[in-house]
Specification:
Blueprint lengths: L46 H33 L8 H26 L12 H40 L4 H6 L2 H23 L2 E4 L10 E4 L4 H36 L10 H26 L9 H9 L1 H22 L1 H10 L28 E3 L2 E3 L1
Antiparallel strand pairs: 1-2, 3-4
Length: 385
């Protein structure tokens, strides 16, 4: 927005066009400092502030992606141990971990290969074509990983909620099997692959100009971008609502179960349920911001405005940072809430304490019906005959 002075000074003699009331208000473009200023949309921040915000958040997101890739690789190594593969919750969590690794690694590759359009030395070469292809592939992998992780986390929360509400049900018993977790992971990955493959198969890598030295670019030849983004946003909003409903249902179910229990042993806190709740809450927070940015970033939405649209663009990397932090948070949730998880780490690092029980040798003699005497000696926790 441009503010002009309203003083009553007399304009000085000059050949420049004067449209203001102040001697310094000399504008060439219909009374404004730039061409088309009167039609320019009003924003909350200027271009410099927007650019600095994007640069800082982009750098932070890159750092978080590197940290997330390393921690999730360690997380995956722990989850694939034999002791962790007997619980459907950890099986589904393994699928979430794989999705998080894909998102973090693809975010790194997209930044490295995404600047090929500005590299004039390699423009139009086969190398620049492959860099453009990897950029598109990285964007697709990130979208796949985000959606698949969100869906798997919702499945995990639903299974845990059903097991708390209907503990004796045969259906719940089937859901708690390891095979069920593998089927859920395979089905979710397959559906997400088909969904994004149907969209990205219409992308074409081409040269905007006929010049051989022109840089390759990519575009959606069917122009289905708006429809795809709209449907993806609706799915994200639906997942956000489901997270809220399932989490509240699980909390209410746990509260009712704890009230019914009378004995102290039965009243112990359920760490597995709390782990699932924490993961559902973390996904809810990250998906809530992601769905909010979808609404703000849609110019065609009647709720959106130029100011909200600019705010959505500036918070793009903030949402990615929150999603990456969410994946890192899963590692710490498992570590602090799962004794089994900590035991596996101790065993991998050879920190497990060896429990030895020293007992005095005991001799027992049986003389019934002329039986031969057996001597049992217990030492260091092992029984020898």
């Amino acid at each position: 927005m441009y503010v002009f002075s309203t003083t009553t000074l007399t304009p000085l003699s000059t050949t420049k066009r004067w449209h203001g009331r102040d001697p310094t208000d000399y504008y060439f473009y219909e009374g404004g400092p730039e061409e088309g200023w009167q039609y320019k949309e009003e924003y909350l921040f200027d271009d410099e502030t927007e650019g600095k915000t994007m640069d800082v958040t982009n750098s932070v997101d890159l750092l978080m992606s590197v940290i997330g890739s390393v921690l999730n690789l360690i997380h995956l190594l722990i989850l694939t141990r034999k002791e962790m593969r007997s619980n459907v919750v950890f099986i589904i969590m393994t699928g979430i971990c794989v999705s998080d690794i894909l998102v973090c690694s693809a975010s790194i590759t997209e930044r490295y290969f995404g600047n090929s359009f500005g590299m004039r030395k390699i423009c139009g070469t086969r190398k620049q074509w492959w860099m453009t292809f990897i950029e598109v592939l990285s964007a697709a992998i990130q979208k796949f990983g985000k959606l698949s992780a969100a869906v798997l986390a919702l499945f995990m929360a639903c299974i845990r909620t059903a097991s708390v509400i209907f503990p004796m049900s045969r259906v719940v018993g089937t859901l708690m099997r390891v095979r069920t977790g593998l089927i859920i992971i395979s089905g979710t990955f397959l559906l997400c692959i088909v969904w994004y493959l149907d969209y990205y198969k219409n992308f074409e890598i081409y040269k905007p100009e006929k010049d051989e030295e022109a840089c390759y670019a990519f575009e959606d030849i069917l122009n289905r971008g708006r429809l795809h983004i709209f449907l993806e946003g609706c799915v994200v909003i639906l997942l956000t609502i489901c997270y809220l409903l399932v989490t509240l249902t699980l909390l209410i179910a746990l509260h009712m179960v704890r009230r019914k229990r009378k004995t102290l042993a039965a009243g112990k806190f359920d760490n597995t349920s709390f782990l699932v709740i924490m993961m559902a809450v973390s996904f809810f927070i990250s998906e809530l911001l992601y769905s909010t940015l979808f609404i703000l970033g849609n110019r065609d939405d009647p709720i959106s405005s130029p100011k909200l649209f600019q705010l959505g663009i500036m918070l793009e990397y903030v949402a990615k940072i929150l999603l990456t932090f969410n994946s890192i948070f899963h590692c710490f949730i498992c570590f602090f809430l799962s004794t089994q998880y900590r035991t596996v780490i101790q065993r991998m690092l050879c920190w497990e304490k060896k429990t030895t029980e020293m007992v005095e040798p005991v001799t027992q003699t049986h003389s019934e019906a002329g039986r031969t005497t057996k001597t049992h000696t217990r030492s260091s926790g092992y029984l020898y005959y």
